[in-house]
Specification:
23 strands; 413 residues; globular; mainly beta; 17-stranded antiparallel sheet; two-stranded antiparallel ribbon
Length: 413
């Protein structure tokens, strides 16, 4: 009826990922993903709606890893049928006290079946000084969003919320042999202020500023942290800060065209306990420009592209070398002298992706096929992914990555 609405969605997918660095460091994972979402919307009044729902994502993972463990050694592992995911429940209220003001408070709880830690009973926006733990491996979250149209087609917006997720890299940081099986969920508090301008029925502009704080981030063990005979490669005390501004000019789906132009200016830092300072993060992206365009063509064809430019990844320069005389055959005769951590950058990343879709519409179902060509720009510009030096650190080379085209088929009934 008009007071109740129910939405249910279920999907299943399969993925294979292969990663290798010169055939030594390897990561091979195969997994099935199940996603179920159920939401019930109750209209309490003309101005108020209550939404209750369940959000479940489960992944059954087979994982093969070969990673460095220090002292020029590699460790290997093989795990099958490893269950990962999120079992979540949520409730949020849509409240419009007046026509041009909307307030959306909400609560959510996420349970992580692969983790073994004491989660919180109150939503965390920072490291609380009191004991905020339970015996369950899950965490609650609180989110609050607000929108106010102060002039026709001009809207101010704000949001605050805390978030949790399973620690990454998935599987590695909680591994029973060289991870921390009791690693907690990674936590974050997010704050946003923004403004929207609806220029026409199809074109809109959006600007927003954000601040993000993170803690309980898995951190790779360094020489200064622990004795070298400890097997675990990860610590749980990482902290991060992110701030930035996002601009977007968007053309909504029209009769033939959909597209947007987006620019992000951001700074991302991670805490270094050895220097007691926040330093530029290894994946910091100062500038990120993205152009996306898609066209609906005749006979149920669609074609589009994505172009993106990203500031090069931070890297630590090698400023010199030390040569060791009379070293044995088993030890390297040269060791590098490093400069300030992440004080230089690789060349910028540039990528063009192209996708073509075709639909075959039958009486009771639809068959969709597509070809997705990523990093087509590799043919004329090779984005540097990593940087390596020769044996005596007198010359460096960069490596780039090519992604093979993907073909896909989807059926809708």
């Amino acid at each position: 009826n008009g007071m109740l609405q129910n939405r249910f969605r279920y999907s299943i997918g399969y993925s294979e990922n292969r990663f290798s660095v010169f055939g030594t460091v390897k990561s091979i994972n195969d997994f099935f993903v199940h996603h179920l979402r159920e939401q019930l919307t109750i209209s309490l009044s003309e101005h108020t709606k209550l939404n209750l729902g369940t959000d479940i994502n489960l992944m059954i993972l087979d994982l093969d890893l070969t990673i460095p463990a220090g002292a020029n050694m590699l460790v290997r592992s093989h795990d099958e049928n490893w269950l990962f995911g999120t079992i979540g429940g949520y409730a949020f209220l849509e409240y419009k006290p007046v026509e041009n003001l909307q307030i959306i408070p909400g609560l959510r709880y996420d349970f992580y079946p692969e983790l073994d830690y004491n989660g919180g009973f109150l939503p965390e926006f920072w490291d609380y000084e009191f004991d905020n733990t339970t015996r369950f491996n899950g965490d609650p979250s609180f989110r609050l969003n607000g929108r106010y149209e102060f002039i026709k087609n001009h809207t101010a917006k704000a949001a605050v919320g805390n978030y949790t997720q399973t620690p990454e890299p998935v599987g590695q940081v909680i591994h029973k042999d060289w991870g921390d099986p009791h690693m907690p969920s990674t936590k974050a508090a997010h704050y946003v202020l923004g403004y929207e301008w609806r220029i026409t029925e199809l074109i809109s502009a959006d600007i927003q500023a954000y601040l993000n704080r993170q803690w309980d981030i898995p951190r790779w063990v360094e020489q200064e942290d622990l004795p070298s005979n400890r097997n675990a490669l990860w610590l749980r005390d990482g902290k991060g800060r992110m701030r930035g501004m996002e601009l977007m000019l968007r053309h909504n789906q029209g009769e033939r065209f959909l597209g947007w132009l987006a620019y992000t200016l951001s700074q991302s830092k991670r805490y270094n306990p050895n220097t007691d300072n926040y330093e530029i993060y290894g994946n910091d992206q100062t500038h990120h420009l993205q152009l996306v365009a898609s066209w609906r063509l005749k006979r149920d064809w669609d074609a589009g592209f994505r172009l993106q430019y990203v500031t090069g990844k931070p890297t630590t320069p090698i400023t010199g070398r030390t040569e060791w005389e009379n070293m044995s055959f088993f030890f390297e005769p040269f060791t590098p002298i490093e400069g300030e951590r992440n004080s230089t950058r690789l060349d910028p990343a540039f990528q063009i992706d192209v996708r073509v879709d075709k639909k075959f519409i039958f009486e009771k179902w639809i068959l969709s096929t597509y070809i997705d060509i990523q990093n087509l720009s590799w043919l004329f510009y090779k984005t540097p992914e990593t940087q390596t030096y020769n044996y005596d650190f007198t010359n460096k080379t960069t490596t780039s990555m090519i992604i093979l085209p993907a073909l896909g088929v989807r059926a809708e009934f």
